[in-house]
Amino acid sequence: xxxxxxxxxxxxxxxxxxxxxxxxxxxxxxxxxxxxxxxxxxxxxxxxxxxxxxxxxxxxxxxxxxxxxxxxxxxxxxxxxxxxxxxxxxxxxxxxxxxxxxxxxxxxxxxxxxxxxxxxxxxxxxxxxxxxxxxxxxxxxxxxxxxxxxxxxxxxxxxxxxxxxxxxxxxxxxxxxxx
Length: 179
Known about the structure:
By secondary structure, the protein is α/β, with parallel strands linked by helices. The protein has a single domain, classed as Rossmann fold. It has helices spanning about 25-30, 50-60, 70-80, 120-135, 155-160; strands at about 1-5, 10, 40-45, 60-70, 90, 105-110, 115, 120, 135-145, 160-170, 170-179. The strands form 3 sheets. A 7-stranded mixed sheet has the order 5-4-3-6-9-11-10, with helices on both faces. A two-stranded antiparallel ribbon has the order 1-2. It has a two-stranded antiparallel ribbon with strand order 7-8.
């Protein structure tokens, strides 16, 4: 682990976007209205904690579950969010599988992965969307960003009552979906 981004975060090589702010995640934070999220939610695919950190600083939440399949990412996120530890829980879990140990959530934010190594697999993001839909309470919301070429609209419409493409620019699209 080492300091990155002007020592604002700790990360390490091998974690997605380990030494930068991912362009999609940055766009999602710029699009998400302040104080939009309340109650208990999750950052699916939390990485080193960029999105979770933003939520903790700009929203009045009760608790956030930071979830990732990469153990190193979960550990980096835990270090980066240490000052808000009372509100943060960490889960080393595979979000392509149904997660029954999470409580019913008010919201989920995510920038789901779509690579397995160098091979593109949009199915990973589709599993994340399905897992989010199952984890959310009725009326809960999903905020997500994805590369523009990824075909997530149909699975979003299948798992959510209302789906809005909030923005499409710079090769990304931001969705807000309500269950």
